[in-house]
Amino acid sequence: MENLNRRKFLKTSAMTIAVTSTCLCGLQGCATFTKIGDTPAIAPDSFTLAVHVLTIDLSKEKILSQVGGAVKIKHADLPDGLIIARIEDGGFAIASLLCTHRGVEVEYDHTQANFKCASLGGSAFTLDGKNTGGLADRPLKKYEAVLENEVLIIKI
Ligand code: FES
Question: What is the pTM for the complete model shown?
Answer without folding.
Answer: 0.81
